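input
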Amino acid sequence: MAELAPLDRPEDVPAAVVSALGVRETVLRTAPERPVATADPVELLVEYCAGRELLLVLDNCEHVIEAAARLAETLLTRCPGLTVLATSREPLGVPGEAVRPVDPLPAAEAVRLFGERGAAVRPGFTVAEDADAVAEICRRLDGLPLAIELAAARLRLLGPRQLADRLDDRFRLLTAGSRTVLPRQQTLRAVVDWSWDLLDEEEHDALRELSVFAGGWDLAAAEAVCAGPADLLVGALVDKSLVVASPEPDGTGMRFRMLETIHEYAVERAAEDTDRALAAGRRHTAYYRALVTTAEPLIRSGEQLPWIARLETELDNIRAALARALAAGEEEDAVALVLGCGWFWWLRNHRIEGAEWAERTMVLAGGVPGAVGDLHVRHRRAEGGTGRSAPTEPGPGVPPDDARYWPRLHLRMLHLFLSSETDPDHENLTPAARAYVTGLRDLFSETDAPEATVFPGLLAAFAPFFLDTAEDAYPLIDGAVDRCRRLGAEWELATALMFRVHITVDAPRENADAQADLGELRHLCARTGDRWLGAQVASARAELAMAQGRYEDARAECEEALHLAQEVGAFAETPFLLARLAEIAHHSGDRPRAEAHMVRAAAVADETASLDAHAFLILLRARMALEDGAPDEAEAMCAQLRVVNGRTGGPPTWMAAFADTEIRVRAALEGADAALPQWREALAAAVSARLSGSITASLLETGALLLMETGDHTAAVHALTVATRLRGPHARGPHEADLAARVTATTRAALGPAAHTEAVAGAASIDPADLIS
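output
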């Protein structure tokens, strides 16, 4: 083994190897009879190694790389029994070389090394003292053995958590190396300085420029950011172990990254050349702005899967570009980045983060309306918003002919969309917030400009879900459908039609309307290729089938929706679809399948923080507990539901379903008389909101049961008959059918056949509102 680290001059390499082999005196035998003495160390080595089987280790070649390479090639050419193992920060580059990168330590080995070195400097130390902090230290130090050893040496003064919290200043912190090792191995800065000093100027510049990346990059990105020949320079930095290369997950090429320690060092070096760093940052922002702008329509198309995966891969770089644009006050770049990522953030459940970026960008782009604070978004405008005015109007602060008008309006609509999705209490708006939403809706809906129809302007049609009821949304959504047809915006048209189907199922429109829209949606989904849209349409078909009592069709459609949502990675949709499958199984009388779906839905809802899915599952379990004859258990679930996530309100359909369950629980625990007042209130709310026939019918069936139990058999017959009329040709589920049969049998026995028939006939002229009094 020849240790080359101490050498200062490349020409000393052969002599160092001679010394390592212990070759003191030898001769060059040009012929058996004429030995000739030689002082040439290369010839001495050839003479010594030519007839032997040897492994020669050349350790630490990087600073004498060319001399080590020449020697290795000469020896390998003339000594057939020789194998050379060279350690270096870059390959020797000789024929026949096989490169074996030495990766950082795996996590478990890194933690073990830290524990051993920590116990050596502080007797009694164990990793268990703070396992999370130790794991963080090892991860942030990239599993580099020297860095871990230097960190462990600091345990004389700091605990693991203190040490982990100080790693942002790692080059000042990690300085306590052994005095007996080479100077470049005594501190973390020294070891990285050593690698830096081995680079040429072009490589210095490239490393500085590449420091603008966060989380890795591909060659195309490097070519956009680097001023020099990126392919050659990145390759050189990979060879010199300052950049790590690994295959892209999809096998399309290579992806590059710096270890965190190297990246921090490169950022420091970039600060030495601010002009170059600023220029590289501008190129980085431009590249990722172009990327998200290109990706934005494609993630809603048949090409969406690779583009969604690419945006996920580049998310850290997109964040870095956004932060840079905001810090530099570059409104155009920041707005374009946010709008380019808006649908991606929503689809992939980055909604809280997206709302925060949108609001920070609104601070830059004309200020944040005062009412936005009432929308309960999680981001605090104090971050970056100091000194800017906060207009109270929803307008963008510039006239319509200004180039910033539509981007700013779209930004506000996107922010409203994302923030509403992250706030469980978004229905309870203050008057100022309601005025803001109304004004924003009007700015989009009262113009025929194409920008008002495409995403996110299309979302203005759904503002009534914040303000009023689903029925009030029809004019806006009908108008959006018409504008999308004129504009030829197929994805937006499909989205508008899909929402119209959903509210048709929940409101008293003819099912024929929904069937017609679903027929058109089949063709639009096929043309756009968007799997998310396909999942939504399948979910709407499932809702309609369920409302019509076609439970097997509903199950098949819901399973199709689940498959498409999971394929596109819309994981926020998964728990509710699983909960819907549980509901379908329950209505079908398949209790074991319902239980299995609920268990899976609850687990996924935990993973995705889906509050709505949890609420739906609790409600479903409460209904099942009632059917099992366990009203106390059902009451406990209703109490949990009242306070879950601080929710005090919700859409009318949800409130009607919740009230229906609470009424049945109260009747079971306190008697029908105690539950009747709440039932009247719930029925009045359903009638006022003009909810769908199936939802109102369920409330009427509950009322029929209560009226029967209080002895008002005629009113019970009226309620059940009106419920039957509202359901139309659609069959009741098994539990509703049992309830209807019980009410019918009891009231017929109490009234007698003739009076019962007369009561049924008398209900023909009664509507739900008549029953309230």
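quick obs: The first helix runs from residue 13 to 21.
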